[in-house]
């Protein structure tokens, strides 16, 4: 008997649901029409004062049982959905968002090397350019293993103003020379938009570091450069913030962006940072941009480089970044995480195993 | 002209809003009636399969412009609001939730000392009971400053099984003896429900530590004891989880709960933990339970004990907890954060300044 | 000329270095002898008061240029090294620490299935036992894919006391019945040491959850049980704390421990937790215990289950844990992360690709 | 008897300690002399290759019982102490480090207002300049309560390129006009060094935001400006990194720096960020710079503004920063945390209570 009553009541709810559905869609059509008028008038779609008035009217009319708070919360959701309907078109225009499973950005380097085409690329080299000899030794080792993108870092963002800040333009020259000698491309970190003209002379692939991930002036500036840009996730950036930073570049005109995950800051002390491999998987779902895993900074220790390289590959990432130095203990930075050349070779053996292809 | 059109469209929206308001409340009344029937039948109110069917029906009926995803999201909000309407009555029954600004739990100790009545109480003592002499020396100092609640920790939760685990029942006896000598109450950490009978013999105020904040068997067990319980926030517990843990105790029958904030785990290294003083302020808004600030574990260093004590007082907390040891460098645990007796006296001078009353 | 002087000075330093080396080792031998005497006398090796006296003597004798602070810091290091020399023998006795690359714990189940032998095992099943039908449907699917360890969770640790807490012993019975029907083993979470006798009747592999990772009474109790124990990393536990918790079990007599990494709590919101895959790689270096990756709780979303499964395998872990439910949207817990049975089958296809073997 | 033997052995250790003390200091003197020569030669003091050779020599000479690892670790400490001895002079030169308890930076504004002199200053105003009317209304309210430093934010660092980015130079003009009308100073965020000339025309106090805390080019550039700079802690910056960022400014020539703590990123969701009040207390110990507490961004909710203001004052901070808007719900950013003008007045009443002076 009470089951019958429940069925009866449920039928009433079903009817109300459909009535509300019609009202919601009718409402959305009107909002959309207002939106078009506002666009023509150059007025912002979001009008909090109007929202405030509507909420007040509802509050005054409300007789319960829903509390005013609940009614306002539900209508705020409805307002948000209406705004979102307009934004979904904007969002459909959000450049870095993946639209379909096939949607992928492939970045083509001048020699035909591609990043994001399903291949697994390696970016490698010393933490910082220290001398021609050092770069030459590393460069030869990289080239021998088919690496095409060489780190040529000449400006080092450092915590302290008294730490080694990089060789500057001299370092860029050395990197260019070595890259040319071995047929590789120079990847180098840019720290301020004023450096762009100089970088155009030496650098093939611009790199925006973790500390500058939300430096919007720099992002917009590299968005106007016709070279690929590698964008590093901030120390404590959410994935959403990371994608929005990429959008700053993309919306300024440069679609050739490679994301790099470098570990986030957590309480754990046995690794320098915590590699967010789940985040890599999520980024492959949410964005069509290629993504590379930095196995050096995320771990801060070389003894787990091999498993992390396998992990990077397994995650669906488009490549990895690893630091290599002829003599890590005497390196001017990141001594504990840079691989020796034999360690680098062992790593390449590991990820180039044919069964992983 | 387009302004006129906007006004016209807005009037249509206002009308739709009110129609939806009526439908929402009508719907809520029906849901409520079903809820009552289900309660009589002993059936859970939450019926995900029924929800699935309603969403499917809406999806089939939807002609846009809202996408199916948006429609489903909005209706899920409506379903949630209806459930919440029922829960708000439940929530009104959530025991630790503050109902009004005047709502406060005051905990009365046998000698008339009250926690949560607007006074600022101090809980103090050594990190662990080590000997009668140590406890006696500290006890005399505490009593001289009017402290009523003395730490008498005899079971220490330690990271390693090889670290000092406390003196056990022998330690409880010492604590009881010293507390009796100076007219204080023993506060002591309980680690397993099997200890309750023994604790009833020695301990006035039970303490549930950070590592056990979500040990629901222990929470329910101390919820059946007629002594006050101090509940410490977990290392990485959200405020919501913290309140739900208190609710485990309260819903088992014991309303005399004191919350203690002890710092959360973050990346910062210059303090042992990060004291979440904003969280203290939020808990005073959300709950009527007294809350105490642990200025020892949150900092892990004694040189900022004074400012933290002032901060605790200013935050609206009901007291603070501080560790005091006759000779901190030789303490068996927490050597770096325990205050010497002269430091403790200076701290009491600071917080007992009459202008802060 | 100044280069010559530098060479001369460096020669002096080399000589001093060797003299200090001799003194350090002589000192260590004496400390070791004292240690032996203290062991015979049953006295603790660590004597902070003696250390205090030595530091004071050095301070009084110090004429610089090293400051007293530096001298004290250096000698504290020397004291620590001497203690560590003794502890290294203790450490060599720390049961969960890996002693050599070949050192691995293999856990043998009654039917010959092994965990930790280089194979990649799957632990799977519903988040919670809800009914015989649900368990039977999942159980059949698991058995069809060769899964040997089935989740049979009957006690659910929940944030709120008002959430579904599991079916209790009734749930254990169902799990046992289904496991027996399909020739699998029951894995089930124990929440309090008082449950051990009951669990012995139904459960093959004990599971200690994240909230109880530092419940030392429970750890010691399961350390006395002759069944394998799965130990889950706490929400915010460091790797060091995780291993020490395992040591509580091991040092109580039970060497059959499987570690499970389930993601740590961070600021990121697009995943429920942050899977610490670098931590998995580090644990394989530091410990000989098998480790399994929980790809359900770490992500909290099923759309990245496949890449995370590949990642788990690539990391060197000994297996993965995944939640599977016949109808996730109506599950009583964790609806968003449980896989459907077809999704589970696709996942198994992915990780059983022969080229990964 | 064995006690006698222990006494005897301890006497031997005391003797060795003093011999090592002499050797350590002798060594330090020689290192210091080499350091001076290297400074003259323009060579870096840190020579990892030389260290490598010394460690190798020690390793070859070591006969135990200390392991080679321990010996190398101890000598690395000794090397570090020697370097540190030189750095301590450098460190004594680290400009933002507090040298003595009396050491404090006081920042004098043109009208005689001082920050860091023991007074408690308030920086207030709207999150962003939106219009003259809005700024005028807020400005009048601030001036009426004696506020001297007004937010005049015209460039907003936003997560998304599609969010409101500020009014730009037009906004700076409005801020200048309003500040002049009410006799206040304009505080405004600079985002790129290219903006400096424009900012010199409108802005009294430069503000470097959290996202730019490690933008070393910008830090060095504002270090050359003769106006005070407010430096905000990064979302996830350690206190050490924060001070080093201030050192970038100070070492470029500008000593007039105000630090601002704005909450750090944690897992907690009931507040926008976690106010690190312990960090404020530590910064007062470690640095002589004034520090201000941002009670708006750290909480993200206005209902705890009052307790946080009291907390800021109690912590020993030199002031607070609070956002105030004539109509928060319609603000173009940070609607949930800005105070209304009446709320702002109530807050000022709270912190200006005479007994807190």
Number of strands of chain A: 10
What's the quaternary structure here? homotetramer
What is the mean pLDDT of chain A?
Answer: 89
Q: Give me the secondary-structure category of chain A.
A: alpha/beta
Outline of chain A, from the CA principal axes?
elongated
What is the makeup of the main sheet of chain A? 8 strands, parallel, barrel
- Largest contact between protein chains? A-B, 56 and 55 residues
- Walk across the major sheet of chain A and give the strand order: 3-4-5-6-7-8-9-10
The DSSP helix count of chain A reads 11
Low-confidence stretches of chain A: none
Order of helices and strands of chain A: HHHEEEHEHEHEHEHEHEHEH
Distance between the termini of chain A: 65 Å
What Rg of chain A is obtained from the alpha carbons, in whole angstroms?
26 Å
Task: Put the structure in a nutshell.
4 copies of one chain form a homotetramer. With 357 residues, chain A is an alpha/beta fold. Chain A has helices at residues 2-41, 48-61, 68-92, 132-144, 169-182, 196-202, 216-222, 239-251, 277-286, 305-314, 341-351, and strands at residues 107-108, 114-115, 121-125, 149-151, 185-189, 205-208, 229-232, 257-261, 291-294, 319-323.
